[in-house]
Write a structure and sequence with these properties.
The chain is of the alpha/beta class. The protein is built from 9 helices and 10 strands. The strands form 3 sheets. It has a 4-stranded parallel sheet with strand order 1-10-7-6. Strands 2-3-4-5 form a 4-stranded parallel sheet, covered by helices on one side. α3 links the parallel β3 and β4. The longest helix is centred in the N-terminal third of the chain and has 21 residues, at 74-94. The protein is globular. The two termini are 22 Å apart.
């Protein structure tokens, strides 16, 4: 998989600055996600961003859609679908291989919130049917829709990830496997075992792996919290080894590294995360994929090898 910084560009495409791309490049990343949710970008905006990324040797990673593939209010659901269709067009023109949405919820306001109906079979049926309404746009633009899965959204575990992808029945629908989102007290101290089993079970139903770190906070009721990369319990070496089972154009995407865009230590945290992951890779002899290996190049390589 390609090493990627997942969510730097958290703004409209026209507002992204060349110096931000330079910072990403100087840290060492060569694949960068576009976490904008911008569905109003013009062709000139897209051309400008592509030029900036080319200047700093950055390949486009996942695009943050900023829209839901399902909303319990039909009117809102239609609005989100219209936005998704536009986002898929923009992501395709940028060369982003995937877009990220939430894993689905019946909550009216927060696309990531818990809701008692999320874990029913009815919720999965509705999510699948809602997703099918935008699959044609994904296929037309050669971009893969990847809901990010958590334990509290509709796609809440490995079996429901499998069901969702298989029922959508399109090469342009997969999932984001965020391994920290699926940690619990039974998994966190032996995270490598769970991650290896999850990836082996899901295989190429996974479009993106989100990589961060996790720690236990001991109170009357124990909590799991994200933490700076390399200071927590996640077995990054096991995750790297397991990721070798997946198609190499996909992104091993670092994100949520205890950062705050408004604070000066943001760059330090992102740099430390990169250094930690590279150190683990060096220690176990893991090599990340060529950052310029696109999905299209990989498909062509497979055809030529037949």
């Amino acid at each position: 998989m390609r090493l990627c910084w997942n969510d730097w560009f958290n703004k409209r495409l026209r507002d992204i600055k060349p110096e931000e791309a330079k910072t990403i490049h100087d840290i060492g990343y060569r694949v960068a996600g576009v976490n904008s949710g911008d569905d109003e970008a013009t062709d000139d905006d897209i051309k400008r961003l592509k030029s900036i990324m080319t200047d700093y040797e950055l390949s486009p990673g996942p695009y943050g859609a900023g829209a839901r593939i399902f909303h319990p209010d039909p009117t809102e659901c239609e609005r989100h679908h219209k936005k998704l269709i536009k986002v898929l067009e923009i992501a395709g023109k940028l060369g982003c291989p995937t877009i990220r949405t939430s894993g689905g919820t019946f909550d009216l306001k927060d696309p990531w919130a818990m809701h008692q109906e999320n874990h029913t079979q009815k919720s999965m049926d509705i999510l699948v049917e809602s997703t099918k309404k935008v699959i044609a746009a994904a296929e037309d633009n050669n971009v893969i829709i990847c809901p990010e899965t958590t334990q509290w959204t509709i796609i809440d575990d490995v079996e429901r990830m499998k069901e969702f992808v298989d029922r959508c029945d399109s090469p342009c629908v997969k999932v984001v496997l965020d391994v920290v989102n699926h940690m619990n007290m039974q998994r966190v101290y032996e995270s490598g075992r769970w991650m290896k089993c999850a990836i082996a079970t899901l295989g190429d139903r996974i479009g993106v792996i989100h990589v961060k770190d996790v720690q236990v906070e001991y109170k009357l009721v124990a909590h799991l919290n994200e933490t700076k990369m390399g200071t927590g319990l996640l077995d990054h070496a096991a995750l790297m080894r397991a990721s070798n089972q997946l198609e190499p154009w996909k992104t091993f995407s670092l994100e949520h590294i205890a950062y705050d865009y408004t604070k000066p230590d943001h760059v330090i945290n992102v740099t430390e995360a990169y250094n930690h992951i590279c150190a683990v890779a060096d220690r176990i002899g893991h090599t990340f994929t060529d950052p310029t290996l696109t999905r299209e190049k990989w498909v062509e390589m497979q055809k030529n090898n037949r």
